[in-house]
From TrEMBL:
It comes from Pseudorhodoferax soli. This is Fatty-acyl-CoA synthase. Coiled coil: none annotated. Signal peptide: none annotated. The keyword Repeat does not apply. Pfam families: AMP-binding, AMP-binding_C. Keywords: Fatty acid metabolism, Ligase, Lipid metabolism. Belongs to the ATP-dependent AMP-binding enzyme family. SUPFAM superfamilies: Acetyl-CoA synthetase-like. InterPro entries: AMP-bd_C, AMP-bd_C_sf, AMP-binding_CS, AMP-dep_synth/lig_dom, ANL_N_sf.
Length: 542
């Protein structure tokens, strides 16, 4: 034992487990009188949010929820969803935010898999939840305690399924004294499910330490000032809203809630409530770019964060032209949402807008609080040269990486092979050591032995003024093995043909990369705006 280990032990005065619960406690203590939530006609300050969250925690505790219990929630971006992010972890329980667009079978499977003890659900989703609960009981013999939320901003029927109505349930319980964090920061804080496009979804288990650090990382990455007004265009169910429920609490900001993600509602909320920040997938930013200019009147100084899919350069360029400051971040559910960023440099401002869009469109470098992010050869785990050409796989390691996959040790071990988290995203390192994704490993098109990046082809298509959305996938080809096929949604009123888009691609791409097959069809998307290429691949095969 050296001298620095003698009589210098950890104790409650000098060592506390890291948990975002501390952010809520501090903000309620210091800024309790400041606004915390705006939702339709409802307004809460931080003292009120603190009390409501403590009442929810007390009600859950009375229902037997404690360390290791799972609480599922089926909620849109409402005050109750933010409260769940504060109350459930305070009991050392695990929050399971359900995707509000899933079918009953998948909802039942997920609630069974994570052993949900309580379900808090918005009455809008009563039809699908009723089916899910019947399946959960019939197939698995599991009956969670159901709490109904009758949101004031929902105009439809408030069909009750549960034992309690949310507001009455809160009112019936005296609030806990405080929102405590866990004894061990490695304890699970949430479980989020991947999309399950190639079989059953995987349950990504995250911990208090990672949630704390990524919430702080969001502030550092965005140089986010105190008291931001944050618009919920990103679903809070998606990777716990990229940890922003806790980031907003840390910075004593305002949750501006939004039930429906539509351009008029987004821009009206920005103007009316002085929104300063928002996050979204590229498709949502494109809604703003392509909205009528009259809707954007009076909306200024807004900072956006884009992730969820590689953003087309045309979208980044378009946002810059209308005065939105966009930061491109990169990540996955397994790294709490964003854990990489196209960190901006002052010199980029000297480049023309197209080059700025290219630089900002890269996946970039690790978050300040993430230990490692680089591009490695997946076979040898050697870093690829920073030549912008040699392809490898983006990998992460550090505190902003999941605990692992629930009840799936084989998938966990595979994901962590060699001491790195393997993303499955194929990329290059450019000369400045910023990573640029070429494609998902499953999305690379191999035509005549040549690799075609679907992202590269999509970037070119997005530069055509008539293209609103597009996706490029492989289709079987008797001669080349695979060939690219492009699915396109045109802008309203635009006149464009397949021949026009093929000619446009020929002007910007090598001949073998040009999609000769262009189809004008609706493109399937997830609730977070990601294009579902697996569905398009099935279409192309058919």
């Amino acid at each position: 034992m050296n001298i620095y280990e003698q009589d210098l032990d950890r104790n409650p005065a000098n060592h506390v487990a890291l948990s975002p619960m501390g952010f809520v406690e501090r903000t309620a203590e210091v800024f309790g009188d400041l606004p915390a939530v705006i939702h339709g006609q409802r307004r809460y300050n931080w003292a009120q949010v603190h009390e409501r969250s403590r009442r929810l925690a007390a009600a859950l505790r009375a229902a037997g929820v404690g360390r290791g219990s799972t609480v599922s929630v089926m909620l849109p971006n409402t005050p109750e969803m933010a409260e769940a992010h504060y109350a459930v972890p305070a009991l050392n329980a695990v929050l399971n935010t359900l995707n509000t667009r899933l079918d009953a079978e998948l909802l039942a499977w997920q609630m069974h898999h994570c052993e949900a003890q309580v379900l808090i659900t918005d009455t809008e989703f009563a039809p699908v939840i009723a089916k899910a609960l019947a399946l959960l009981q019939g197939q698995h013999g599991r009956t969670p305690l159901v709490i109904d939320v009758a949101d004031s901003e929902y105009a439809g029927e408030h069909r009750r399924l549960g034992a309690h109505e949310y507001e009455a349930w809160l009112a019936a319980h005296a609030p806990l004294a405080r929102l405590d964090g866990p004894q061990d920061e490695w304890d699970a804080i949430a479980i989020s499910y991947t999309s399950g496009t190639t079989g059953d979804p995987k349950g990504v288990v995250t911990h208090h330490r990672g949630a704390y650090l990524n919430a702080v990382g969001n502030v550092v990455t965005w140089t986010m000032p105190q008291f931001p007004r944050y618009l919920w265009t990103l679903p809070m169910f998606h990777c716990n809203g990229w940890c922003f429920p806790w980031t907003v609490a840390l910075q004593a900001g305002v949750h501006v809630c939004l039930r429906r993600v539509e351009a008029p509602a987004i821009l009206a909320a920005m103007r009316e409530h002085g929104v300063t920040h928002y996050c979204a997938a590229p498709i949502v930013h494109s809604l703003i770019v392509n909205a009528d200019a009259a809707l954007r009147e009076g909306v200024t100084g807004v900072r956006g964060m884009v992730a969820g899919a590689s953003p087309p350069a045309a979208m980044i360029e378009g946002m810059a032209k209308i005065g939105f400051d966009i930061t491109h971040v990169y990540g996955l559910t397994e790294v709490y949402g964003p854990a990489g960023v196209a960190a901006k440099r002052a010199t980029w401002a000297d480049a023309d807008i197209a080059e700025q869009a290219r630089l900002n469109g890269r996946q970039g470098v690790r978050y300040a609080l993430q230990d490692g992010m680089t591009v490695l050869d997946p076979a040898t785990l050697a870093e690829v040269p920073a030549d912008g050409q040699t392809m490898g796989e983006i990998m992460f390691r550090g505190n902003i990486v999941m605990k692992g996959y629930l009840k799936n040790p084989a998938a966990t071990a595979k994901a962590f092979e060699g001491g790195w988290f393997h993303t499955g995203d194929l990329a290059v390192l450019e000369a400045d050591r910023y990573a640029r994704i070429k494609d998902r490993s499953k999305d690379i098109i191999i035509s005549g032995g040549e690799n075609i990046s679907s992202i590269e082809v999509e970037d070119v298509l997005y530069r055509h003024p008539a293209v609103l959305a597009c996706a490029v996938v492989a289709k079987p080809d008797a001669k080349w093995g695979e060939a690219p096929v492009a699915y396109v949604e045109a802008k309203a009123g635009a006149q464009v043909t397949a021949e026009d888009l093929v000619a446009h691609c020929k002007a910007h791409l090598a001949g073998y990369k040009v999609p000769r097959d262009v189809r004008f069809e609706p493109i399937p998307k997830t609730s977070t705006g990601k294009i579902q290429k697996f569905e398009l691949r099935q279409r192309a095969k058919a």
